UniProtKB/TrEMBL annotation:
Keywords: DNA-binding, Transcription, Transcription regulation. The keyword Transcription regulation applies. It comes from Fictibacillus nanhaiensis. Pfam families: LacI, Peripla_BP_1. Residues 3-56 form the HTH lacI-type domain. It comes from the Bacteria. This is LacI family DNA-binding transcriptional regulator.
Length: 327
């Protein structure tokens, strides 16, 4: 049976409050410290670090709220956050909201009640309720993946990434282009990335671009692509994510067509599998690991009251695969 602080105090012949003071780094004489340490070693006592931390001014717990755990991008960011926090002796508490906004709000409140030192919110959109909740809780919150004027943020350079993709597709001679995007409630991917693509194409004189909305999952992207190709005959399809591109590729294959012979295809994300499939996907890879490391360092600085840059922007790499044909 696990020992309690009361048991340790009794075995060491000291008050329970003295053991608690010892565990929290308080003022205890060297003789008493030696007694308590001896009992802890003999009983293999492991203090409940979470309960213990609730009494301390600093808990060394950082909450991370993520929209999903099965996304390549999100999981890469999460692993980098956790690794960097571990190096700095912090513990990560990760909550997945399955892309439900109400769960994000609920998680912000719950984490604040658990006295975490700070929260990293990886968000697909910031609503008025987010504003109200973040302002109401009394702990630092860092927003990742969305730009919000009122809060500290780390974002991908979605507009410039989109612009680069639009320019590239134009240089490959494509004029009949479809863009498969996502809902505009996601400002970063749904609005800025799309606008970058459209502006990049417009600079080359291509303004007649058909845009459609897909969900983030492969199955829905496949269905949307099928409907698009029933009424349109583009030479190129630019997708808001690699997953959407995989869905489009699935439909193209089912229709007995080929990439890039019949349709050129590109995405965003730079997933590892994009380099394994045939043809390899032309895509843009964001610096996800760098984003995670920077998020961990930034939230620690915020919890320590240091001034941090209001907006930090992560870069990207353009990866030219085999999925776009020059015409």
């Amino acid at each position: 049976m696990n020992k309690t602080i009361k048991d340790i105090a009794k075995l060491a012949g000291v008050a329970k409050s003295t053991v608690s003071r010892y565990l929290n780094g308080g003022n205890v004489s060297e003789t008493t410290k030696a007694k308590i340490r001896k009992v802890i070693e003999e009983t293999n006592y492991e203090p409940n670090s979470f309960a213990q931390s609730l009494k301390a001014k600093k808990t060394n717990f950082i909450g991370v709220i993520a929209p999903t755990l099965d996304s390549y991008v999100t999981s890469t960011v999460l692993m980098a956050i956790d690794e960097e926090l571990r190096k700095r002796e912090y513990t990560t508490l990760i909550i997945s909201t399955s892309k439900h906004v109400d769960r994000e709000i609920e998680s912000l409140i719950n984490l604040s009640r658990q006295k975490v030192d700070g929260i990293i919110l990886i968000s697909t959109g910031i609503t008025d309720k987010h504003y109200e909740t973040i302002q109401a809780i009394s702990i630092p919150v860092l927003v990742v993946a969305q730009e919000v004027d009122a809060f500290n943020c780390i974002i991908n350079d979605d507009y410039q990434a989109g612009f680069a993709m639009g320019q590239y597709m134009a240089t490959q001679g494509h004029r009949s282009i479809v863009y498969l995007g996502v809902t505009e409630s996601d400002v970063a991917v749904g609005q800025k990335r799309k606008q970058g693509v459209l502006d990049g194409l417009a600079q080359a004189g291509i303004t007649d671009v058909q845009t459609y909305v897909s969900q983030f999952d492969l199955h829905n992207a496949s269905e949307v692509t099928k409907k698009v190709l029933e009424t349109s005959a583009p030479t190129a399809i630019i997708c808001a994510t690699d997953t959407i591109a995989f869905g489009a590729m699935k439909t193209i294959s089912k229709l007995g067509k080929k990439v890039p012979d019949d349709y050129s295809l590109a995405g965003f994300g730079g997933y590892n599998i994009s380099e394994v499939i045939h043809p390899t996907l032309t895509t843009i890879r964001f610096k996800n690991e760098q984003t995670g490391i920077q998020a961990a360092r930034t939230i620690i600085s915020m919890t320590e009251g240091e001034e941090v840059q209001k907006l930090q922007v992560s870069g990207f790499h353009f990866i030219e695969g085999e999925s776009v044909k020059k015409i």
